[in-house]
Structure formats: C-alpha cells, structure tokens
Amino acid sequence: MNPAPFRALTRVFPAAALLLVMTACTDDSPSSSASESASPRASTGLAATTPTGRTTAMNIRLILDGHHIAATLNDSPTARDFAAQLPLTLSLRDFHQAEKIADLPRKLSTSGAPEGADPEVGDLAYYAPWNQLATYYRDAPYATGLVILGHMADGGAERLATADEITIEAAP
After folding, report:
1. Counting beta carbons within 10 angstroms of the beta carbon of residue 172, is it exposed (0 to 12), middle (13 to 18) or buried (19 or more)?
2. Per-residue pLDDT tens for 39-83?
C-alpha cells in the first residue's frame, strides 16, 4: 500500500476542519443571510421599508357610500405613483357591469409594468390607455394596458357594485 496519499490527506484534513469551524461560527455565513433576506417583511400603516427606502406595500382605505373598506397597494412603480396622488375623491361610472371606472387627475408611470393583466374581483387597477382607475366587483377578462395596483379587503366588491363615488386615502 502506498502511504503518499495518506500523508497528503493528513496535511489537508486539519486545515479543512479549521476552515469549516471558522465559517460555521461567523454571522456572515451564506445560510444565515439568505434566510434573513428571504423572510417577508410585515406591512402596517404606510408599510415596512427596505434598506433602500422602497416600500413593500401600502395600506389604504376606500370610502364607498360612507363605509370604510381596507385595501392594499402593491409595490410597483405604478402603485407608488398612484399613492402619491392620495387622497382622491372620484366619481365612478359602471363599465360592462363588472367594474367601476374613474378618470384620474394625471397619467401614472407604467415603468416596468406588464403588457396587461387578468383582474380578479376586488382588484384596483390602472387602465393606462384611458388614464382611469378600474375597480372590479365582478370577474373580467384579460386587458392589454391594465396594471394591477392592489386589492380591497373582503366585502369591498359588494359595496363597490352600487357606489357612485369613491374616496381613497392612506390608512390611518
């Protein structure tokens, strides 16, 4: 039996063991930082912020016929641009017996937005071609130019179906 491979192993093994022990004891190990960065951030009030200052979501309140409905905006450039216009009070018009639409005071940024979206009941969206807020109380098909801004809490869609006016503000 050739002792050379065993001698090489006895020289490498202590160094490898020491390196393993040192990296396992530091806070900079990839496994600890990866698990911390992957954990979701809580969103309350104006929402949690990341170290870069970007918001992860924004809680808002809709007022429909005097009833307060909770809603959340997502963290898209379009939703942040919409939030910058709050508070808003808008007249609503029915569109295709599925959504209420309202003209916005100015166009919103659609930077990085998808080509379109398939809205769900309770969604708040921006229809870029017409510069309108679209709020859904029934199912509607995919629409090119539609950007989802957020979603209202359960119960909001039923109130929306009969509303003629909506006030949107940052949640207190």
Report:
1. exposed
2. 333 333 344 333 333 445 899 999 998 999 999 999 999 999 999
Q: Could you give the 3-state DSSP secondary structure of residue 35?
A: helix
**Gap between the Cα atoms of 41 and 56, Å rounded:** 8
CB atoms within 10 A of CB 79: 26
* Residue 126 near residue 82, CB atoms below 8 Å: yes
Contact by Cβ (8 Å): 146, 134: yes
pTM of the model: 0.68
Query: Which amino acid is residue 47, in one-letter code?
Result: A
Structure-token pair, residue 84: 């910058």
Are 140 and 57 in contact by the 8 Å Cβ rule? The answer is no
Structure tokens belonging to residue 8: 């090489």
* Nearest CA among 129, 164, 123 for reference residue 145: 129
Kindly list the strands in the beta sheet with 132-136, ordered across the sheet, starting from the edge strand earlier in the chain: 88-91, 165-170, 58-64, 67-73, 146-152, 123-127, 132-136, 99-103, 93-95
User: What is the DSSP annotation of 102-164?
Assistant: EE-SSPPP-TT--SEE---TTEEEEEGGGTEEEEESS----EETEEEEEEEPTTHHHHHTT-S
